[in-house]
Structure to design on (493 residues):
């Protein structure tokens, strides 16, 4: 009986536990509560994905009101896969959290972190599984508002500026999205995504629908940090506490990419989005600009977290490039890269948290001799960096290989070449860190081994190992991503 309510419980549990963390106050108790909820959400996400892949889409009517009149939670291969990514990262980050939170936030404010984290988790999962356009906005704002708080918890005063900048730009994106939803409601009289998908084909010549498409696309592009709407991201990732950066980098933009996929391919439909309104070429151009511009900027960064932040903008370019191809292979590559980038960037930012825990810095000059002082942490960065580059036998290689094949299938040889060249740029900025860590002598006063605690290293290495495992045996992820791509191009939600 309880299993029938799993779709709702996935969001309700973290939402209800968030205020409990405020009441608990104690850092240890709040962490245990957040840890338990995170792993329950992960287990539910895994069960729901398995059920969807075997039995097809699931529909859950909230409050017993049948859609489209009532609010619907709807799961298919696309959002069940993304929900699993979000829940998995949340569960692993919670294993990592106690020591990192104590070091960078302080136990006196730890309960605030766990409260905001659970709200953010609930919001991200809600965006992923809801079947209602307005509720997507509600959950988007729950996740965004809690993200602003999480970022502002950093002890560097620049974290407040980063949170404020994110708040302003995030609010603009949410407002644009909401205007688009209002215009769709005016034109169709419904907010249910499946119902919208059925009604919009007859209204594609209505001016309000086209304006709604523009507002929704720009609003979601701002949320996912598509170049040149990425200005909030570098500061947010750089000055947030390490555990916050790892969680947001691996989840928030991925959920926004999912939302864009859902509207482009399910609500409006590929025919309208890419033929009636030819969005393919503009998205491809912006994606390639992101891949190269952000990678070049990353090369010249001295703060390693900021370097990885610009790298994330470039990686978002790969996801959007796959979308612009409008093929099953291209979408498979994009969805695969959503999963793989969560693994690689989660591992890299957790490794940065290990470094900061010991040396209170992530400046590249302070990485001198790091491999001697923190060999396991340095090796974890190398593992994540190899996946980021796309070296064979890592997860990053799989999604980039699929993207190259998708470009070649469309006879877009120059695009395939650009994918390879932009990947080589990642070699340069990853090598800068490796060179400092392995080929520079450590400072005389730090020529001792001082590895990070196991409670930080184990979650980091879980993600590093996942990068290798899903690079060697990619059958599960490629199958799920392929089924998700076919769902987007071949059927309604």
């Amino acid at each position: 009986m309880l299993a029938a309510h799993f779709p709702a419980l996935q969001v309700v549990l973290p939402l209800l536990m968030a205020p409990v963390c405020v009441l608990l106050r104690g850092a240890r108790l709040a962490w245990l509560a957040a840890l338990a909820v995170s792993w329950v959400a992960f287990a539910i996400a895994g069960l729901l994905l398995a059920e969807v892949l075997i039995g097809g889409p699931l529909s859950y009517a909230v409050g017993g009101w049948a859609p489209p009149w009532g609010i619907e939670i709807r799961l298919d291969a696309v959002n069940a896969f993304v929900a699993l990514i979000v829940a998995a990262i949340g569960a692993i980050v919670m294993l990592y959290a106690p020591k990192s939170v104590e070091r960078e936030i302080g136990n006196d404010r730890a309960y605030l972190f766990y409260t905001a984290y659970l709200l953010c988790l609930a919001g991200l999962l809600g965006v992923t599984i809801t079947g209602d356009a307005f509720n997507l906005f509600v959950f988007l704002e729950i996740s965004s508002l809690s993200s602003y708080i999480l970022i502002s918890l950093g002890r560097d005063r620049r974290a407040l500026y980063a949170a404020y900048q994110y708040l302003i730009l995030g609010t603009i994106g949410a407002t644009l999205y909401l205007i688009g939803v209002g215009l769709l409601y005016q034109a169709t009289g419904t907010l249910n995504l499946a119902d919208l998908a059925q009604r919009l084909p007859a209204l594609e010549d209505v001016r309000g629908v086209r304006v709604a498409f523009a507002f929704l696309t720009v609003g979601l592009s701002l949320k996912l940090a598509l170049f040149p709407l990425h200005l909030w991201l570098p500061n947010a990732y750089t000055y947030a506490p390490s555990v916050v950066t790892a969680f947001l980098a691996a989840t928030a933009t991925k959920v926004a990419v999912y939302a864009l996929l859902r509207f482009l391919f399910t609500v409006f439909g590929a025919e309208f989005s890419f033929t009636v309104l030819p969005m393919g070429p503009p998205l491809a151009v912006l994606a390639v600009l992101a891949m190269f511009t952000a990678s070049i900027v990353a090369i010249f960064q001295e703060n390693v977290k900021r370097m990885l932040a610009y790298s994330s903008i470039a990686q978002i370019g790969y996801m959007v490039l796959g979308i612009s191809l409008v093929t099953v292979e291209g979408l498979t590559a994009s969805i695969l890269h959503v999963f793989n980038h969560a693994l690689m960037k989660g591992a890299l930012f957790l490794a940065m948290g290990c470094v900061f825990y010991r040396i209170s810095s992530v400046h590249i000059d302070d990485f001198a001799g790091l491999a001697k002082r923190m060999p396991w942490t340095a090796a974890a960065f190398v593992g994540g960096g190899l996946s980021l580059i796309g070296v064979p036998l890592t997860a990053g290689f799989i999604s980039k290989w699929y993207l190259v094949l998708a470009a070649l299938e469309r006879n877009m040889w120059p695009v395939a070449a650009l994918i390879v060249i932009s990947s080589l740029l990642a070699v340069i900025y990853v090598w800068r860190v490796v060179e400092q860590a392995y080929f520079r002598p450590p400072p005389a006063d730090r020529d001792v081994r001082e590895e990070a605690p196991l409670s930080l290293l184990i979650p980091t290495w879980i993600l590093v190992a996942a990068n290798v495992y899903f690079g060697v045996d990619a059958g599960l992820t490629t199958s799920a991503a392929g089924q998700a791509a076919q769902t987007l191009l071949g059927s309604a939600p």
In short: Residues 281-493 form one domain. The chain has a mean pLDDT of 88. Strands lie at 58-61, 72-75.
